[in-house]
Specification:
The complex is a heterodimer of chains A (about 525) and B (about 650). Chain A has about 525 residues and is an alpha/beta fold. Chain A has three domains: about 230 residues, P-loop containing nucleotide triphosphate hydrolases (Rossmann fold); about 170 residues, 3-Layer(aba) Sandwich (Rossmann fold); about 70 residues, no CATH class. Chain A is built from 18 helices and 24 strands. In chain A, the strands form six sheets. In chain A, strands 6-9-10-3-11-12 form a six-stranded mixed beta sheet, sandwiched between helices. Chain A has a six-stranded mixed beta sheet with strand order 18-21-22-15-23-24, sandwiched between helices. A four-stranded antiparallel beta sheet of chain A has the order 2-1-4-5, with helices on one face. In chain A, strand 9, helix 6 and strand 10 form a beta-alpha-beta unit. In chain A, helix 4 packs across helix 5 and helix 13 packs across helix 14. The longest helix of chain A is centred in the middle third of the chain and has 16 residues. Chain A is globular, with a radius of gyration of 24 Å. Chain B is about 60% helix and about 10% strand. The longest helix of chain B is centred in the middle third of the chain and has 30 residues. Chain B has a six-stranded parallel beta sheet, with helices on both faces. In chain B, strands 11-10-12-13-14-16 form a six-stranded mixed beta sheet, with helices on both faces. Chain B has a two-stranded antiparallel sheet with strand order 1-4. Chain B has four domains: about 90 residues, no CATH class; about 250 residues, ABC transporter involved in vitamin B12 uptake, BtuC; about 120 residues, Rossmann fold (3-Layer(aba) Sandwich); about 130 residues, Response regulator (Rossmann fold, 3-Layer(aba) Sandwich), CATH 3.40.50.2300. Classes of the chains: A alpha/beta (about 525), B alpha/beta (about 650). At the A-B interface, strand 1, helix 10, helix 11 and strand 20 of A face helix 1, helix 9 and helix 10 of B.
Chain lengths: ~525, ~650
């Protein structure tokens, strides 16, 4: 208890919500200069735990000690005073203010009642240099990419002199290169004596960065182990059972001869993506890898008709699909599970049943009237088939866990008998157990003769699940790798390459094999 | 687990539990019930069949408008144009049927088509022009109002009798507007719950991008949604006009805000994705119950608006607190504890509403249940010193004679005045004094009072097509002539003048303008450079005069249809006023007389508003007592100039 290196201790915390025990007798402690990983499936209670440290929730029972003294954290001000800073998955930044203004928001240095812009920008520049990011303090936050936003958040936390830094899945949205940069910063902070609570779903990151791991399952802390614990053991602790295979892809035997379902030729939107051509056969999973900003999402949105393109054609089973027309794409059998699940995939305050029935709403209507009973039956069937864990079909999807939300998004396309399903980052922010369920779903789809096009920034996932991998760089296809040739190194070297028009011929050569 | 607690609670409470849950789940319904209980406790006239039907009629127009707006708000839009579109549709109906002899059925179709067309324009601007709904419909608000003034030339148009029946009762007791409200409500509920477009509204309102990526044709749906809103506005406009037997170009002014308030009180969120027809109906009823109750309780007209605003805020607050209480983390396993917290919050707030309402009404409630004769005075507006003076004259006289006088303010809205007259009639007053917003529109209400054998005295403006016991007025046409003559003679028979007209569509504006024209006929040397409306308003008078000065810097005289506009013009003229430019006003309000004294205003045609009020109450009392009353009591108008201003005090 009187360990001078101990920054934070949580004892026997309990927190309940109506009908749910979110946390029960959770213990946790954090020392100066360590990275303590918090591991658990979505819905296990990690977020609830950190929200109690940031003051968003107050515990029903148990104690929180900071520096050996018991404290009550009633709000964000309290946690700030105690030197606890939190970086959430959704950043708390104001898009139209500058980087410096965001870092010092509410605490801007003042002189004679006016904001001392010069000093603020100088201080911000110092902090940004410490984080090691090359951003002007005068840049508008709106213009920054996601990785830089995160660095700004970290700089903001540093400006608070945080002794405890909580990072909620900071790597979920970063490419592997950016992750490496982040790790370097975290290691530097650790060396400075900051205690870091690190939440991640990527098991390989634990060994790379962590010191200790606390595993939370169903609202209880089930164990504290060193970071060197083997991944199998961590998974077993986390899900309470061992997962046989992380990527259970069953590759069909005769995929080469299967008919081409989706064929994209020379797709170009000036300044965004150029001359994109590829094919996806029935029963095949084609992965699209690449750095964030390589144009992957833009391409699939154009294929789906959500955005326009300038040149090229999209064909489904040989039939051309009208440009920039979601309805036409859907009629041809294309479905899109968008990257931003909450922002684009779901009506959060509508029920599970309504979300599942969204795509089939028109086909279930006769003379303008919706067949509500039929819709409900279909939703019930698909929710059961996908194993959506919910209180009932009338539960609002906002209150589902990430994995179950994603199942609902996929489910609405399954109901529409989709032949070509496009998945954009389908497992982002989803725990291991739910990930495997979604992989199983992909297997079932392809076994039934559908074609799957999957974007993912998670390299092991792309490699593990795809039959072929397309790598995009700077708006072009940098190369195509069959499953047995696709290694992390091969994909990464293509992803950072500068493709020119010659790649087209290279690609042709690929196909020739 | 959550369902378990619900089950156990339902099991414990049986039927009463079901009712309680209904109330807890719908804050607006709770608020409505609290209001009804409080008002029936405070006024014996409230809980009668007649009065409840009155409330239904009074809620009908707002409710139908609000149903249309519900579609828009559920889909995360806003429609500010519904009031104007209602007026435009009604005007189109009256104009085509009355002035152009189009068969009534065709005229009704034309009116509805007008509403749909206005909605389609809104929808087109929003879907394809990418205008924010607020701006697109704000533009339509102005265009709709303007077009209805253009078509009607600013005057109300009488409706054919067959359409006016829509404002009557069915089988002698069921008012048609209530029936229309119920039917439109059922249609709304059906559309929202069962149809493709209804379900799309929730999806679009909840997450437009997700809806689009799920294959919903968002732009087409929006077009249809705004068209539906326009259609409902047209129906509301027809009902409104039918009630008043005439289409008023200025009708339903500001109703869009009532409609939006009703939708939000009913539990919808302006952020979209939620909302129900039943909630909207309750919201509209809350507003109508409140206005009706405050009339019955003779709450001061000024305080009424305060009370209405407070209740709107409290009703929505009640709903928000209830929802928050429902969403706040509660101990599990002690499900009843969670329920209790929610109940406590709801009941607590309900108690606050009741206390606030009872306190406010008993504080502002001037009446007592004695045997003194009761009278009602419905003024067209209290936003103008002239009418405030009528009010104070009437109140002083009533006090002297021992009469209990209830004063209401129609806020220049003919249908609100109809509501107030209806409330007067149903609460069995001895006599009603009315200062009509519009002489045609008041006829139905006066007829109803006549039927109930309640004497009606009109003050300042007459009532057309209905028998009144007396008209106490100064002669607007004669006054207008007098004003024109005064200005012309001051200018020596030749000169260049501008005329500031009153609010288009009001009888005072028309009559005074006619008087000006007649008076100027005798002076061919006077050249009228421009005639522009400034709506009887001082600020607008200032703006319009400033604009006119740009175009006509050589103006020598200003003829304003009331003192407020004249004073605005004086402000615009600055040091020119009273020197190189002579301004003549109308009404003789205290401010106007002060300006005459100071020489900035050359003259004002003084009515004697306090006298109008006083004489109206006198005549009303005579009528109640069965004494003979003169049909037309003329209160003299006089030209007030610097020489004789000392003798006037308004």
């Amino acid at each position: 208890m009187s360990d001078p290196d101990e920054l934070l201790r949580i004892e026997g915390i309990r927190k309940t919500f109506p009908g749910v025990v979110a946390l029960d007798s959770v213990d946790f402690d954090l020392r100066r200069g360590e990275v303590h990983v918090l591991l658990g499936e979505n819905g296990a209670g990690k977020s609830t735990l950190i929200k109690m440290l940031s003051g968003a929730y107050t515990p029903d029972a148990g104690r929180i000690l900071v520096g050996g003294e018991e404290v009550r954290i009633q709000g964000a001000q309290d946690s700030e005073r105690l030197g606890i800073a939190t970086i959430y998955q959704e950043f708390n930044l104001v898009p139209d203010l500058t980087v410096a203004e965001n870092i010092f928001l509410g605490r801007q240095p003042r002189r004679l009642g006016m904001i001392d812009r010069k000093r603020m920008e100088a201080d911000a520049a110092d902090l940004l240099a410490r984080v090691g990011v090359n951003v002007s303090p005068r840049a508008r936050v709106r213009d920054l990419g996601i990785a830089r936003l995160q660095m700004v958040e970290i700089a903001k936390a540093l400006s608070l002199d945080a002794r405890v830094l909580i990072m909620d899945e900071p790597t979920a949205v970063l490419t592997s290169e950016e992750v490496e940069k982040l790790f370097a910063i975290v290691r530097a902070l650790r060396a400075d004596g900051v205690g870091i609570v690190f939440i991640t779903h990527h098991l390989e990151e634990i060994a790379a960065l962590g010191d200790r791991v606390t595993v939370i399952r169903d609202g209880r802390s089930v164990g504290q182990v060193p970071a060197s614990t083997p991944e199998d053991e961590l998974v077993r602790l986390m899900v309470g059972r061992s997962i046989e295979q992380q990527y259970p892809r069953e590759r069909p035997e005769a995929a080469q001869e299967a008919p081409v379902l989706l064929s994209v030729e020379g797709l170009t939107r000036d300044g965004v993506f150029h001359d994109i051509s590829f094919q996806v056969r029935a029963g095949e999973v084609v992965g699209i890898a690449g750095l964030v900003g390589a144009g992957r999402t833009e391409v699939v949105r154009a294929v789906f008709g959500a955005d326009p393109y300038d040149q090229g054609t999209v064909k489904v089973a040989g039939e051309p699909v009208r440009r920039h027309d979601v309805g036409a794409a859907m009629a041809a059998g294309i479905g899109l599970v968008p990257e931003d699940r909450k922002g684009q995939g779901l009506v959060l305050d509508a029920s599970v049943a309504e979300n599942l029935g969204l795509v089939t709403l028109r086909s279930a209507s006769r003379g303008g009237l919706v067949d509500l009973k039929g819709q409900h039956r279909a939703a019930e069937r698909i929710a059961g088939q996908l194993g959506v864990r919910m209180a009932g079909l009338s539960q609002h999807v906002r209150t589902l866990s990430g994995g179950n939300q994603q199942k609902v998004v996929i489910g609405k396309w399954l109901l529409a008998n989709t032949k070509v399903l496009i998945l954009d980052e389908p497992t982002r922010g989803i725990d291991v157990g739910a990930k495997v369920e979604i992989y199983q779903l992909i297997n079932e789809l392809t076994a039934a003769g559908a074609a799957v096009l999957m974007i993912s920034s998670d390299l092991p996932e792309v490699l593990g699940m795809s039959d072929r991998v397309l790598v995009m760089a700077q708006g072009r296809i940098a190369g195509e790798l069959p499953a047995d040739e696709a290694t992390q190194d091969a994909v990464m070297s293509l992803a950072v390459s500068t493709p020119t028009t010659t790649t087209t011929t290279e690609k042709e050569a690929f196909r020739g094999h | 687990m959550a369902t378990d607690t619900l089950n156990s609670r339902a099991g414990a409470g049986a039927a009463s539990g079901g009712l309680r849950r209904l109330l807890l789940d719908n804050g607006a319904l709770t608020a409505l019930i609290v209001l009804v209980i409080a008002l029936s406790a405070l006024s014996g006239d409230f809980l009668t069949t007649d009065n409840l039907l009155n409330i239904g009629v009074q809620a009908a127009v707002t409710a139908v408008l609000a149903f249309g707006v519900t579609f828009v708000i559920v889909s995360a839009g806003i429609d500010l144009s519904v009031g104007s579109v209602a007026a435009l549709s009604a005007t189109v109906l009256a104009w085509s049927a009355t002035s152009h002899g189009v068969p009534v059925v065709l005229a009704v179709i034309l009116a509805v088509a007008t509403g749909v067309a206005a909605g389609l324009v809104n929808g087109f601007l929003i879907s394809y022009g990418k205008l924010p709904p607020f701006i697109a419909t704000l533009a339509m608000l102005s265009v709709g109002r303007g077009l209805s003034l253009v078509i009607s030339q600013g005057s109300p148009i009488a409706l054919p009798d067959s359409v006016s029946h829509l404002g009557d009762t069915l089988g002698g007791w069921l008012p048609v507007p209530v029936l229309v409200m119920v039917v439109m409500g059922l249609i709304t509920a059906f559309v929202l719950a069962r149809t493709y477009i209804g379900r799309s509204m929730y999806a679009i309102g909840g997450n437009e991008e997700a809806a689009r990526l799920s294959g919903l044709k968002v732009r087409k749906q929006k077009l249809a949604i705004y068209a539906l809103s326009g259609l409902f506005a047209a129906v509301a406009g027809i009902v409104l006009a039918a009630r008043l037997s005439s289409a008023q170009p200025q009708a339903a002014n500001g109703y869009e805000l009532d409609a939006i308030a009703a939708v939000v009180i009913g539990g919808a969120s302006l952020a979209g994705g939620t909302g129900k027809a039943s909630g909207t109906l309750i919201g509209a009823l809350i507003l109508a119950v409140l206005r009706n109750g405050l009339n019955l309780l003779s709450v001061s007209a000024f305080w009424q608006q305060v009370v209405i605003g407070v209740v709107i805020a409290l009703a929505v607050l009640l709903d928000t607190v209830r929802r928050k209480a429902g969403a706040t983390p509660q101990a599990a396993g002690t499900g009843s504890g969670g329920g209790k917290g929610r109940q406590a919050a709801t009941y607590g707030l309900a108690a606050v509403v009741t206390v606030a309402l009872v306190a406010a009404t008993s504080l502002l409630h001037t009446g007592s249940a004695s045997t003194t004769p009761k009278m009602g005075l419905s003024l067209s507006t209290l936003n103008n010193p002239f009418f405030v003076q009528i009010k104070s004259g009437a109140q002083a006289e009533a006090k002297k004679l021992g009469i209990e006088l209830t004063v209401t303010d129609a806020q220049n809205d003919a249908s609100q005045q109809a509501n107030q007259m209806q409330n007067f009639t149903s609460s069995g007053l001895g006599a009603i004094i009315v200062n009509p917003v519009d002489s045609d529109a008041a006829s139905n209400s006066v007829k109803a009072a006549d039927k109930a054998k309640i004497p009606v005295i009109a003050v300042d403006r007459g009532v057309n097509n209905a028998a009144i016991d007396a008209l106490v007025a100064s002669d607007n046409v004669a006054g207008g002539e007098l004003a024109a003559k005064t200005l012309a003679e001051k200018l020596g028979g030749t000169g260049r003048i501008v005329i500031l007209q009153g609010q288009a569509g009001t009888s005072a504006a028309r009559e005074r303008a006619a008087g000006f024209a007649q008076g100027l006929k005798a002076y061919p040397g006077i050249k009228v450079l421009a005639q522009q409306p400034a709506d009887f308003d001082r600020t607008k008078g200032l703006d319009v005069m400033s604009n006119l000065l740009q175009a006509h810097p050589d103006v020598q005289g200003v003829l304003a249809a009331n003192d407020e506009m004249a004073l605005g013009a004086v402000k615009a003229l600055g040091s020119k006023a009273g020197r190189s430019v002579q301004v003549v006003g109308f009404d003789g309000t205290p401010d106007g007389l002060t300006a005459v004294k100071n020489g900035t205003l050359y003259a004002s045609v003084a009515q004697q508003p306090t006298q109008l009020g006083r004489i109206a109450v006198d005549n009303a009392l005579r009528a109640v007592q069965g004494k003979k009353v003169e049909q037309a009591v003329k209160v003299p108008v006089k030209v007030v100039t610097k020489e004789n201003v000392a003798g006037f005090s308004g």
